[in-house]
From TrEMBL:
It is found in: Cytoplasm. InterPro entries: 4-PPantetheinyl_Trfase_dom, 4-PPantetheinyl_Trfase_dom_sf, ACPS, Ppantetheine-prot_Trfase_dom. Residues 4-96 form the 4'-phosphopantetheinyl transferase domain. Transfers the 4'-phosphopantetheine moiety from coenzyme A to a Ser of acyl-carrier-protein. It catalyses: apo-[ACP] + CoA = holo-[ACP] + adenosine 3',5'-bisphosphate + H(+). It comes from Loigolactobacillus zhaoyuanensis. Its cofactor is Mg(2+). Its EC number is 2.7.8.7. Keywords: Cytoplasm, Fatty acid biosynthesis, Fatty acid metabolism, Lipid biosynthesis, Lipid metabolism, Magnesium, Metal-binding, Transferase. The lineage of its organism: Bacteria, Bacillati, Bacillota, Bacilli, Lactobacillales. This is Holo-[acyl-carrier-protein] synthase.
Length: 119
C-alpha cells in the first residue's frame, strides 16, 4: 500500500552556488558512502550528483509527510545498483522506498514513493 509520494525539482546552479559558498554543504547533504562516490566524479557530474541526492532527499521528506527537518539529509542514503539505478539504501521509513531521478542540463527532478505492506 502506498504511504506517500514526493516530488522535487531542483535547479543545479542553485546547489552549485550553495557548494561554492560553503565548502561543507556537500557533507551536510551526502552520507559518507555518497560522498566517496561524489569525490570520484568530474566537476559537471559532481554538480548533477549532489543536486540529485539533494532533490531525492527533499522528495523523501515530502513523501514522508514531514519534509526535511524531522529527518535529516544524512538519514537518507541513495546509491546506485550495478546497473546504475538509484536505490534508497538507508532511511528512517519502516517500509520500502522507491526512487527515480532525472535531469536536464539545468534541472534535476526526483520522485520518491513510500510503500508499506498491508496488515
Amino acid at each position: 500500500m502506498i504511504f506517500g509520494i514526493g516530488v522535487d525539482i531542483t535547479d543545479i546552479a542553485r546547489i552549485q552556488a550553495a557548494q561554492a559558498k560553503n565548502s561543507q554543504f556537500k557533507t551536510r547533504v551526502l552520507t559518507i558512502a555518497e560522498l566517496a562516490i561524489y569525490d570520484t566524479l568530474a566537476p559537471k557530474r559532481q554538480a548533477e550528483y549532489l543536486t540529485g541526492r539533494f532533490s531525492v532527499k527533499e522528495a523523501f521528506g515530502k513523501a514522508l509527510g514531514t519534509g526535511i527537518g524531522s529527518v535529516s539529509f544524512l538519514d537518507i542514503e541513495v546509491l546506485d545498483d550495478p546497473l546504475g539505478k538509484p536505490v534508497v539504501t538507508k532511511n528512517p521509513f519502516a517500509g520500502q522506498a522507491l526512487v527515480s531521478i532525472s535531469h536536464t542540463d539545468t534541472l534535476v527532478m526526483s520522485e520518491v514513493v513510500l510503500e508499506r505492506g498491508t496488515d
